[in-house]
Amino acid sequence: MIFTDYDRFKGFIGSFPVILPEELLLIRNKALLDHVPIIRDDTQRLMALLMQEKRPERILEIGTAVGFSALLMAQFDTALKELVTIENYEPRIRQAKENFSRSNAPISLRCGDAKEILLTIEGSFDFVFIDAAKAQYPDYLKLIRPHLSDGALIVADNILQEGRILEPKEALCRRDRTIHKRIREYLRLVMEDQALFSTLLPVGDGLALSVYQGNSIS
Predict the structure, then answer these.
(1) I want to staple 152 with a disulfide (CB 3.0 to 4.6 A). Which of 111, 148, 167, 180 is the partner?
(2) What pLDDT does residue 8 have?
(3) pLDDT tens column, 22-64
(4) Closest CA to 86 of 127, 132, 50
């Protein structure tokens, strides 16, 4: 499939957005108007599908933004007992708190540097969604590793970086070079780790999906 056809294909898929309740739709639309990055429409549909298929009881999200993705996961996960989400940017923390206050979902917002908070969390998680500082993805992976239940699914967003991940690092600006290097490091880690079974999907800005099977390996 040539690139232009692929763009048309993604546009076609995007014409079938997931149906959201009114409150979530309002949060989505406001985030887009305020230029707050949230998961894209095709990613929303996949996340909703994963919630309905896997029905995780305990979710960890790294990167709350305004709380849209956390509320979407809670909306479609009928087995959810707790969703722990982490955010470090104060203006978005305030908005997320306001959005969460209008929901009865079992969401716990942790405020501060994700790497520091991940050192203090307890228990195991069935599902982890990583959508925060891209240069920190390899560090997040190492820190969440002790908290993965057997069969836990890790989803990392924005892996393609609008196609920049395919470019040689010399063609990128200095800031993008660091992100390029660290995302490629993350991909190498999840693809080579014998306790993870991973794949990449060209959904949204690219997703890396990894199933943790460490407790099943003899």
Answers:
(1) 148
(2) 76
(3) 999 999 999 999 999 999 999 999 999 999 999 999 999 999 9
(4) 132
CB distance 150 to 212 below 8 Å = yes
Amino acid making up residue 149 = S
Q: What is the pLDDT of residues 127-137, one digit of tens each?
A: 999 999 999 99
What structural domains and CATH numbers belong to the chain?
A: 3-213 (3.40.50.150)
H or E stretch covering 29: helix 22-33
Structure-token match 């232009």, residue found: 4
Write down the pLDDT at residue 161. Answer: 74
Q: Where are the beta strands (DSSP E) in the chain?
A: 58-62, 82-87, 107-111, 125-130, 148-157, 196-201, 207-212
DSSP 8-state secondary structure symbol assigned to residue 209: E
Band of the pLDDT at 218, cuts 50, 70, 90? very low
d(CA 153, CA 7): 28
Identify whether the C-beta of residue 173 lies closer than 8 Å to the C-beta of residue 147: no
Closest by alpha carbon to 99, among 71, 136, 125? 71
The letter for the amino acid at 195 is A
Q: Is 63 left (phi over 0), alpha (psi -120 to 50) or beta?
A: left
